[in-house]
Here is the input.
Amino acid sequence: MAQNGKKKIGLIGGGQIGGNLALLAVQKSLGDVVLYDIPAAEGLVKGKALDINQLAAVDGYDCRVKGTTDWKDVAGSDVIIITAGMPRKPGMSREDLLEINLKIMTDVAGNIKQHAPNAFVINVANPLDAMVFALHKIAGLPKHMVAGMAGVLDTSRFKCFVAEALGSSIRDVEALVLGGHGDDMVPLVRHSTVGGVPLTELIAKDKLDAIIKRTREGGAELVGLYKTGSAYFGPAASAIAMAESFLQDRKRVLPAAALLEGQYGINGYFFGVPVQIGAGGVEKIHTVELNDSEKAELEKSFQSVKKTVDSVKL
Here is the structure.
């Protein structure tokens, strides 16, 4: 908690996602923000903080951003969102980032353990499922106080493409994407609706298959367009949705990578499932009834995650 009584949000990584996280947190009046990065990026985080604070004066936002390279400034954060790490470049898979980002995560997790052990921690760094596993192990965080942001983003992409295909309001699209944050993620078509109407009754199978493929490759599509990095607006909004539900005890049910202990037949791994996020962190893990085909797809996704996580050496 910040000294002024506001909630305190620690953002680890001052890149494109970090800057947008800070902006969204201020615009939503979630609390005061500390934007942290390594000493080489001191000008970047201090510049972004100053820029956003000046923007706040235009619309009257009362939350403030502080750019820092000192972990002591992160101490006491209510929620921490980690984006630090190397972004994907064209031709790279998320798994290609494992070795370099694991070194960064090891340092970040150690500092969280020392300076902010009571924070609810949301990881955005890739490969997502392996990084949140490492974060949990190294920082020693309670299982309900750590989660990975992926499902919210993957689901938002799926909803975006569905609304686009139908020419309908995106507000009326209800959907859910489970599994690992990779090419084997599982959009639950059978459980998806538009205004209460089953999606399978509105879109032909071939078009639906194309939407599923585009959803699975949504990150790679943006990497190919940006050339020098990966998505940042969508990931920032998705992580803020999780942070907001925690900070304001919204108890929203959102797809996120949580530690499973037998649910969906998985034990000891972080995996994308519907969870309830409130003031207690990950308060519930919801189990969705799946048919044989959906179970097979989810198992395929889990095996991809397991392979990457099992290669993590801590």
In short: The radius of gyration is 19 Å. Residues 155 and 177 are 5 Å apart (CA to CA). The domain at 8-148 is CATH 3.40.50.720 (Rossmann fold).
